[in-house]
Please model this.
Amino acid sequence: MSSKIRVIVVDDSALVRSLLSEIINRQRDMECIGSANDPLVAREMIRELNPDVITLDVEMPRMDGIDFLGRLMRLRPMPVVMISTLTERGAEVTMKALELGAVDFVAKPRVGLASGLNDLAAQIVDKIRVAAVAQVRRAPVRDLVQTSGGVGGAAHAVAPAAALLGRLSTEKLICIGASTGGTEAIKEVLVQMPADSPAIVITQHMPPGFTTSFAARLNGLCQITVKEAVNGERILPGHAYIAPGGTQFHVARSGANYVAVVDDGPPVNRHKPSVEVLFKSAAGVVGRNAFGIMLTGMGNDGAAAMREMKDAGSYNYVQDEATCIVFGMPREAIAHGAADEVLPLGQIAPALVTRLRGATDRLHHRI
Model:
């Protein structure tokens, strides 16, 4: 028998602390070993009790959750699940928390807190379980200080605009799937893509209300334009389109153009949006003009459809285990025989751009 996952709950609301503690203690494989009403109390509790995971409220007295998270990830990196409010401000702060190293987040309801949290119980404990096995790393200084307005550090060196991918970009489509740890992994890929990149379509497991902030944050960092996908819009080169939280997103063709389809389809593999939905559409619509990228995440969403993409002629990249926060989805993609290359996160975009340039050169020689 393995030991239970030991959790500390940090929240300024006595009701939330009580509810979360009760939800955790109902599980056979975890226990709440303490709760704190602010980060200063939590700091001492963490030192004394050495938990496996903490849940952390974003907005608290004396020191807010983001300041505390930043200090924690510099000095004593550990798995953290953020408890966020479902507001525009809450979404922006949550994106910052993920940037600082939080493994995942839960969006708590604004009304009906007791019933709402109990409705989310399965999601909460699932995310605690994932956090307990996640590979947590000390955040680099550049990520702790960088919030907007450009990209710093060698790992985020942007591919030169001189890539001149040109005509090829109108034919090709890059498809990205990710879950836990994916917000930062997606950023790592997108900031390295040149302005004339082929269009990029992305499914990141995320609830409604958070993908708007995610897209806006990425748009401020990248040479390409990053936005939420809108049903019926043309998918253009030099743009990345993110599946809106709580919807299904796939691609279709209208004449010579790719178009976005965003609808209220049912969950697939328990997810909405689902990587399976996006990748399956790419297999059927884009075929050999597609590139697939599978990034960090728990579970197997998208693995079977990525193999369908490969069988249809796509070229696929999968993130390696050493650089994943959670290796579940990449492992499953590899097991399905869907990967052409398994690479560290920082090498995926350069490898893709090099391959695109090679295809462009071959096209020019034929012309």
Observations:
- DSSP finds 14 helices and 14 strands in the chain.
- The first helix runs from residue 14 to 25.
